[in-house]
Amino acid sequence: MSSRQRKKPRHRGHKNTATPIPSDGVPTSQLQCTGNHDITSPQHNNDESSSNPPSKRLKHHHKLTLMKPQDMSSANNFSPVQMLSNDTLANILFGGFIDQTPRQLAKIVAVNKRFKLVAEKALTSLDLRKATISKTLLLRYPNLTDVDFSNNSGPVPLLHSIPVRDSMRGKLKTLQLRGTKVRDQQMLKFFDTSLYWNLPLEMIDLSGTMITDFTAFAIAHCCPQLKILKLSMCRRITDRFIESIPKLCPKLEILDVSMCSITSKGCRSLFYAPALREVDISACPGLNGRAIQGLITGEILDDKDGSNDVNCLDAPEIQRKRDGVTSRLVSISAQYMTDMDSSVLDLIAVHAPQLRRLDLRHNQVSSNTDLSLLKLGLRRLRQNGVQVAFSRSIGNSAP
Q1: Rounded CA gap, 238 and 261, in Å?
Q2: Mean predicted confidence (pLDDT) in 76-91
Q3: Which of 3, 142, 202, 356 has the fewest CB atoms within 10 Å of its CB?
Q4: Own/partner pairs for 190-198, CB < 8 Å, 24+ apart?
Q5: 89: Cβ–Cβ under 8 A, 6 or more apart, which residues?
Q6: What angle in degrees, to the nearest 10, is found between the helix axes of 113-122 and 102-109?
Q7: Percent helix, strand and coil across the chain, each rounded to 5?
Q8: Backbone torsions φ then ψ of 341, nearest 5 degrees
Q9: What is the mean predicted confidence (pLDDT) over 334-363?
């Protein structure tokens, strides 16, 4: 048999399933295939595939129908967002990609009713630093856990916008009022010990406000879960509140009392705070280098600040002192201190084994301090794994 007479081998298993082209002139974009078009498995009909035509190997023929005009319009208007659940849509909107400010929320709510419903139920953090606050703004979002009023100087009292008897107070975990004009009267009304004695707040920032020890006591009584407290530049905070922290704030981990009116006696009390890990005592006018010793050893060297007698300590403090417990601080910031010498660095190296960060910038070194011993103390701390930042006051060079 010549090569021209040879027949091309038929590939078994391949079936001609092409749909015939319609002859009525209807565009193929409006055609819809219906019916069951299952094809008999080729592995059982390999012998019959050569004898039976493709039309007999189909269980049912394809049927071509026209799509209605209303079906075409609904298909064109379909959006993939409609397939997302409310939880998935909330993660997309409030997962960190959009600023959670009233202006952005207004744009989200204006999209459609579903976006508005998702925002009202899923929003947990609200940034009100540069917003005009209305009395009904926070009522729209009952599940808020983080509210930031920092540096907001709006005419509406900030805390009045949070309902006094609303369930949101039972969910709020972070409250930032840094640089605002809140005072004791507003804070004491918000932290009413007779109504709210177990709020879940874990972080409060009142830096740069005019509050006093009365507000600090109310916060400590109402927030037993408090972990972060920032009172920087609150010049009316004194040792009276600092000495109560070991009892009233057993879970406090981070404390910022820089530029406050505290003394070495208050620093000694912080040694007995069971969970305290980071403390900032920078630029306090009543502190010097010796206050760091009270912070890490629980003892006071200056007679004017208090006595080292055990009788002036509370029962938990006495027990901890007898057990010889060392400081658990991980970070200490003590900038703009006076009377710094090498003995302070030696005490830190011995009594603060867990320390990893020490900020001693802009300090005034004592006139009788041997700079070689000071350099040796800094080198010893760095060898122990402590990240030390040290510099002397303007006019002196760093060792």
Answers
A1: 5
A2: 69
A3: 3
A4: 190/159, 190/162, 190/164, 191/215, 191/218, 191/219, 191/221, 191/222, 191/223, 192/164, 192/218, 192/222, 193/218, 193/221, 193/222, 195/164, 195/165, 196/169, 196/222, 197/221, 197/222, 198/222, 198/224
A5: 81, 114, 115, 118
A6: 140
A7: 30, 10, 55
A8: -145, 180
A9: 91
Distance CA 202, CA 224 (A): 9
Give 370: exposed, middle or buried? Use CB within 10 Å, 0-12, 13-18, 19+. Answer: exposed
Spatial CA neighbour of 136 closest among 99, 173, 163: 163
Q: Report how far residue 318's alpha carbon sits from residue 110's, in angstroms, rounded to the nearest whole number.
A: 62
**8 A C-beta contact, residue 211 and residue 183:** yes
pLDDT at 176: 93
Quick: pLDDT tens for 143-170: 888 889 898 876 545 565 565 445 667 7
Cα(189)–Cα(13) distance, rounded to whole angstroms?
82
Helix pair 86-93, 113-122: axis angle to 10 deg: 80
Between these two residues, 13 and 119, which has the higher pLDDT value? 119
User: For 238-297, what is each residue's pLDDT tens digit?
Assistant: 999 999 999 999 999 999 999 999 999 999 999 999 999 999 999 999 898 888 989 999
Single-letter amino acid, residue 374? L
Is residue 147 a contact partner of residue 138, using CB atoms and an 8 Å limit?
yes
